[in-house]
């Protein structure tokens, strides 16, 4: 079958993802074989492309959020049948969904109703799971009893769905950060009560809006560099939930207020047990159908081609988009 793959880690200006022929995925007992109709493109994949090479003689097929149709069902994959429309994520240790078909554990997949197009569905899995798990921990609901939440990077995929989840599932006042007119407008349209510019003096902007503190900060970008003002705006014993910690972090600004730091990485469940993510995806789909959430596919490209993938990565790496970029296969 055909897939989009590369061999060596590379920057955008040396883009080397291209169509290749790969072997058909082999199903494990708990797997589904899904014919891929659309994929979401996220910053994590661009980061992997820049930093991770294949083993000698090998190639990498990325793609960790998709929507499509089930074509085969493993003997331990309960709740699914051939022909079902689904959305899901995947496993960083296996070939991903930038291919005609992908093998994926059924526990990170959810059924997709006919009224939700594949392109819209593909915008939900990674951002939706990240936002949900960063806000609503399995045994520690961070958003419970929280009155004020600040979402750093409110126009991105995670920030957008976090805002919508907070507005639909809690009574919290939601502040989003955005630096451009179009991203500010997007945050407001998604339900943010207040929008501030993260390139300016955030504490001063909050005070001007009558907000002297927040209870929880969900930071999707620039966390290490923003830690000083994040600690300033949080109340004592408040919470920082961060999804972008990839380098050194000095926790001292958090200590003076006894702040809690929570981290989130979607693929943590690969080692902790996959049960739960399929249920979260199903809840996200139900919220979309009910009108409580909306899909966030703002740019839809067409074709399993190197040109479409390169354009998607250009958009992701520009950090100047709102919502999500999706490719229809």
TrEMBL record:
SMART domains: PKS_ER (SM00829). It holds the Pfam family ADH_N. InterPro entries: ADH-like_N, ER, GroES-like_sf, NAD(P)-bd_dom_sf, YIM1/Zinc_Alcohol_DH_Fams. Residues 10-327 form the Enoyl reductase (ER) domain. This is Zinc-binding alcohol dehydrogenase family protein. It comes from Saccharopolyspora gregorii.
């Amino acid at each position: 079958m055909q897939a989009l793959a590369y061999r060596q880690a590379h920057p955008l200006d040396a883009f080397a993802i291209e169509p290749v022929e790969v072997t058909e995925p082999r199903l494990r007992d708990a797997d589904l074989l899904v014919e891929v109709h659309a994929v979401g493109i996220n910053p994590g994949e661009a980061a992997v492309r820049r930093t991770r090479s294949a083993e000698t003689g090998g190639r990498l097929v990325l793609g960790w959020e998709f929507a499509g149709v089930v074509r085969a069902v493993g003997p331990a994959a309960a709740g699914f049948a051939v022909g079902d429309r689904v959305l899901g994520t995947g496993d960083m240790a296996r070939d991903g969904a930038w291919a005609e078909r992908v093998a994926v554990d059924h526990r990170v997949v959810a059924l997709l109703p006919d009224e939700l197009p594949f392109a819209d569905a593909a915008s939900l899995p990674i951002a939706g799971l990240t936002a949900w798990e960063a806000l609503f921990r399995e045994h520690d609901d961070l958003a419970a009893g929280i009155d004020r939440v600040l979402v750093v990077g409110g126009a991105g995929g995670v920030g957008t769905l976090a805002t919508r989840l907070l507005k639909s599932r809690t009574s919290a006042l939601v502040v989003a950060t955005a630096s451009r007119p179009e991203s500010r407008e997007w945050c407001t349209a998604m339900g943010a009560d207040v929008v501030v510019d993260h390139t300016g003096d955030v504490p001063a902007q909050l005070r001007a809006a009558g907000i002297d503190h927040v209870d929880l900060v969900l930071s999707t970008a620039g966390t290490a560099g923003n830690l000083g003002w994040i600690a300033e705006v949080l109340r004592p014993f408040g919470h920082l939930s961060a999804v972008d910690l990839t380098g050194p972090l000095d926790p001292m600004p958090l200590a003076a207020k006894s702040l809690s730091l929570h981290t989130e990485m979607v693929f943590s469940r690969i080692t902790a047990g996959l049960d739960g993510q399929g249920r979260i995806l199903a809840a996200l789909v139900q919220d979309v159908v009910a009108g409580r959430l909306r899909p966030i596919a703002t740019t839809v490209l067409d074709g399993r081609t190197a040109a479409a993938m390169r354009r998607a990565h250009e958009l992701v790496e520009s950090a100047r988009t709102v919502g999500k970029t999706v490719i229809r296969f």
